[in-house]
Amino acid sequence: MMRLPLFEFRAPRTIDEAARILDGEGTGAMALAGGTDLLPNMKRRQQVPQMLMSLRYIEELTRVRLEASASRLGACVTLADIAADPRLRNGLTALAQAASLVATPHIRNMATLGGNLCLDTRCNYYDQNYEWRKAIDFCLKKDGDTCWVAPGSPKCMAVSSTDTAPALIALGARVRLVSRSGEREVLLADLYHNDGLDYIQRKPNEILAEVLLDPKHGWKSTYWKLRRRGSFDFPVLSVAAAARITDSGVVEDARIVIGSAASRPLVAVEAAKSLVGRPLNANSIAEAASLAARIAKPLDNTDFDMSWRKRVTGEFVSCALKELRGDDVRSERETFMRTRLL
Questions:
Q1: Which of these, 23, 85, 251, 317, is most buried using a 10 Å CB contact count?
Q2: CATH 3.30.465.10 in the chain, residues?
Q3: Residue 221: which residues within 8 A CB-CB, separation 6 or more?
Q4: Which residues are CB-neighbours of 134 under 8 A, at least 6 positions away?
Q5: For the domain 59-118+159-213, what is the CATH code?
Q6: How far apart are CA 99 and CA 108, in angstroms?
Q7: How far apart are CA 48 and CA 41, in angstroms?
Q8: pLDDT > 90 fraction of the chain, expressed in percent and rounded
Q9: Chain Cα centroid distance, residue 218
């Protein structure tokens, strides 16, 4: 049995109190929301904070405000609540879909939006118990000097496996970061670095408090996830797509984001640009899918063959765009998963 290391526990009631605690404790403290990722990491000694600070009792972080002018989602809203909220449809469907596909119902009841956005990067060489990692002299991400995925690389290649980040980036989301010295808003797409070790620009003394979304009138969005099992598994590839489409079927604006193919979600800028001013027909979809697949460069440190995952990227983008067009792709999704994952 893997046991948690010893730690001090704090449970502030306000975000100001939480910010003061983090500022005073320094890098030895970590914020705890649902704990569905952090606590297993602590059992494997991947993360060993001296103090855990629970955010569960801060009422401000559990609020959801969906208004005509803007939407604000507290960081401690559970993924189960997001998946079940009927207001998160049409323009925000991608977020509800992404939340509904995380792990199992039990985990979604605990896991939070903010926790999923700050999810630690993953790798076959990193996500092992302490004794296994010690046997290979550890790795660059924790306690070692070598990235075993690419031994000649000075950078960690661990993969971003968050489901909600690609969806929210496609929706143009921003996040509010709070510390004792003040607060700042950051475009979610700019929150991440393409480095498995230094993967997020949130500072140790900052709390991710809220997700901010502008109105999505006229937008449609969707989220596609590749995993071996129908539940529980982290994504080994994901595609989020969002588009504003006129009544005549012409794309006015679009965003496509590729997840789990690098240490950060990848925004397929050229693929999205290629759709603007055109209808979602066979030619425009094929061109966008090809352009999006070019930026996906998966490595051999998660499930499935990496070259196959790269080919699947284009197919997932194509299916996502067909869904935005209004096609019923549920049977295509089921057939794809049944025939390709055997």
A1: 317
A2: 59-118+159-213
A3: 91, 92, 93, 94, 95, 167, 170, 171, 240, 241, 242, 243, 324
A4: none
A5: 3.30.465.10
A6: 8
A7: 8
A8: 91
A9: 24
Residue 99 pLDDT greater than 60, yes or no: yes
Phi, then psi, of 91 in degrees rounded to 5: -60, -35
Residue 37, pLDDT > 90, answer yes
CATH 3.30.390.50 positions along the chain are 219-340
Of 27, 14, 189, 37, residue with least CA distance to 103: 37
Three-state SS for 60? Answer: helix
CA–CA dist 125, 298 (Å, integer): 15
The closest of 317, 184, 219, 176 to 259, measured between CA atoms, is 317
Report the pLDDT averaged over residues 99-128: 97
Which positions ≥6 away from 70 have C-beta within 8 Å? 212, 213, 214, 215
CA 284 – CA 240 distance, rounded (Å):
17
> What number is the average pLDDT over the span 147-155?
94
- pTM for this predicted structure: 0.96
Q: pLDDT tens digits for 161-179?
A: 999 999 999 999 999 999 9
Which pLDDT score is estimated for 90? 80
The domain 219-340 is placed in CATH, from the list 3.40.640.10, 3.80.10.10, 3.30.390.50, 3.40.50.970, at 3.30.390.50
Residues 266 and 255: beta-carbon distance below 8 Å: no
Those residues whose C-beta lies under 8 Å from the C-beta of residue 161, and which sit 6 or more positions away, are 119, 121, 122, 234, 235, 259, 260, 302
Find the helix or strand (DSSP H, E) in which 319 lies: helix 306-325
Residue (of 168, 192, 172) closest to 96 by Cα position: 168
Q: What is the CATH number of domain 8-56?
A: 3.30.43.10
- Cβ atoms 310, 298 nearer than 8 A: yes
